[in-house]
Amino acid sequence: MELWQLPATEIAAGIRTREISAAEVMESCLARIEAVNPALNALVEVRPEAALADARQADAAVAAGAELGPLHGVPVSTKINTAQRSRLTSHGLSAMAGATADGDDACVSALRAAGAVFLGRSNAPAFSMRWFSSNDPHGRTLNPWSAAHTPGGSSGGAAAGVAAGMTPIGQGNDIAGSVRYPAACCGLVGIRPTVGLVSNWAPPGDMELEGPLTFQAWSVHGPLTRTVADARTALYAMAGADLRDPFGIPAVHRAAPAEGPIRVGLVRDVGLAKPHPSVEDALDTAAGWLAAAGYEVEELELPLLAEAARLWSLLLCEDLRPMVPGMRELGDEATRINLTHCFEAAAELWGAEPGITAYIQGWARRATLITRLQELLGTSTILLTPVSAEPPFEQDADIIDPERARSLFAAQWPMTSVPVLGFPAVSVPTGVAGGLPSAVQLIGGRFAEDLILNAAQAIEDRAPRLGGDLWS
């Protein structure tokens, strides 16, 4: 097995024990990038000399007996909408094609402190506002499984890079599924943590520092990885108490182990989009595996999630409304079409201009939904849902026509409902259907990351290993 094929946890352990060196791992990943990135376009900035120099410094720290973090020497990619000092931070915009960051976002600082070695910057759509990953300055990222289908978005470059073996960990962020959906499209594990667990603090000058309330209250950073163990390690490496974040928590919260059996509520459909047969199969398969692992699985009707998905359209679109002229001016043609379709879909639910009263009432209703879902889940119940009602979308499905775009928004209810509520959720692969990865989503109560990761591990232990057929 090549070093680039190893999971992050094995790489970190090998470097710690000096069985392998960080420089050797980096050279292996760089060779893999050279071999496959020209076709996939997952990473849009790679600086080999700097990455190798950082890896050699990691080896020197091992030799010196320094205290090592959980990701010491592990290559990690970061997203072009996340500030990493002196690195490309274009947000997928031609007007910012050469922009670099003056400092690190808090999640990048946390990865740096954990010993991660930054290898490249991953692609994303303009403004990170689509479930696809193409833009004018950097081009289109392809799904390693199928060039005709999206790698997901907005963290599609991170997902394609990890799935193809360029890095074992990709940093992403999620306000409408932008970690979980790309992970599912590319056969990976992707976790969206509870709001506040991973700091959203950004250095002065970052374009999202004073973003609208939905961005502040819903957007989170999380890892995309090939294994659940890697996702857990990367997540807690990124987590940290940071009260500079308005939604930050004073300490890293890890829920106590639940007493007794864990209940799983299987939610297939909330009335917004009929699940595709392959999605139904993935749910049935995952439910069977969880039952075999000792979980108590029962079907559950939960219209609360449909209501949360509808609130996503109201609150996000109303927050974006004042920004739309600037986004249309700076964004590419796909951004302009997607914005039009997004607002048209929201208008069908809320009217063309819902107004301030509907907006205020929407935020008030959100609080009620959060309380009701937490009461349902408690400390020993999780939800099993689709990732999407459809398999991975065909490329540019959101800009084909308004009708197709509306079907996408409906299908993505599992992606949009969760950010509104701020709960943790993880996407985990279940196999392959029709030549594309299949996956399910697990949702837990607030700060129940370990609970859903344990369930994801039970699924991973029984699922076929993906990736080997991508690595020939």
Automatic annotation (TrEMBL):
Domain Amidase per the UniProt entry, residue ranges: 24-453
PROSITE patterns (alphabetical): AMIDASES
NCBIfam families per record: PRK07487.1
Name this protein carries in UniProt: Amidase family protein
Organism this protein belongs to: Nonomuraea rosea
